[in-house]
Design a protein that fits this description.
single chain, 259 residues, 4 helices, alpha+beta, 13-stranded antiparallel β-sheet
Length: 259
């Protein structure tokens, strides 16, 4: 009897946890990708990503060359200016702003394709507000950095640009890429420009940084469950013709600024 009671208790506990997990699943996918904080340093500085950062998407399928972009961004970068390998943070692209520009002279076709693209990502009009919020952001969380052209920004010779001193560093960021509730490990080559007032001391803190990909971040649509969804929100089937028209891999480039 005691064994039966114990088994019942365990079963109820498992069911309760499962329900709680199901209830929080959508909310969990909306959270930012967690990246470890860098070790404490006197020159570790937090930069908030500007809201107007851009992400470009290019899908070169056999029958159609799809081009799109997002126009809103968010995120925080914790940069260790004297040891850039310690830098951590995340960059977020708002997928609800995704728009296509595939058809140069046919805006109506672009509008229709934009609607389809957002619905494939479940951030369009076919889903409820909760689902849209859960899928709103594509997030790249930085977990480690290597291949640095310089580890200490103060040691980089500045270039005068528009009345500012700019120090440029290249690197490879390794991290977790989250889209549509699915995670994938990614390695992203980046160029980071550190902006200072003209004549500022090399050991001072920059007023802003620019972060841009040096090469595309390749995203496999199926890996993130991005696929056709019909007007009832149900998943449509991939076909040979659809793959030929839409493609299976998106080349993503990032261009954001942070202060």
């Amino acid at each position: 009897m005691k064994i039966r009671l114990a088994l019942c208790a365990v079963t109820l506990a498992v069911l309760a946890c499962s329900k709680k997990d199901d209830d929080s699943k959508l909310a969990a996918t909306a959270t930012a990708v967690i990246a470890a904080d860098p070790p404490a340093s006197a020159m570790s500085t937090s930069f908030e990503v500007d809201k107007d950062g851009k992400t470009s998407v290019d899908i070169d399928a056999p029958q159609e060359h799809i081009k799109a972009s997002t126009t809103a961004s968010a995120g925080t970068l914790k940069v260790d200016l004297t040891n850039l390998a310690n830098t951590r943070g995340e960059v977020k692209a708002d997928l609800t702003t995704l728009s296509t520009t595939t058809f140069a002279t046919e805006p109506d076709k672009n509008a229709t394709q934009t609607e389809h693209a957002r619905n494939w990502l479940e951030v369009g009009t076919l889903v409820d507000d909760k689902t849209r919020a859960a899928n709103q952001y594509a997030v790249f969380g930085i977990q480690s950095i290597d291949n640095l052209s310089a580890t200490d920004v103060s040691k980089v010779a500045p270039t005068s640009v528009g009345g500012e001193d700019v120090r440029t560093v290249t690197l490879t960021a390794h991290g977790d890429f989250l889209v549509h509730g699915r995670h994938a490990a990614k390695d992203v080559p980046l160029e980071v420009k550190f902006h200072y007032p003209s004549g500022a001391a090399a050991t001072s803190r920059p007023t802003r940084i620019d972060v841009a990909t040096k090469g595309p971040l390749n995203v496999t649509l199926a890996e993130h469950d991005v696929k056709p969804r019909d007007n009832f929100g149900k998943v449509a089937q991939w076909t040979t013709n659809l793959v030929a028209k839409v493609g299976t891999v998106a080349a993503v480039t990032i261009d954001v600024h942070a202060k």
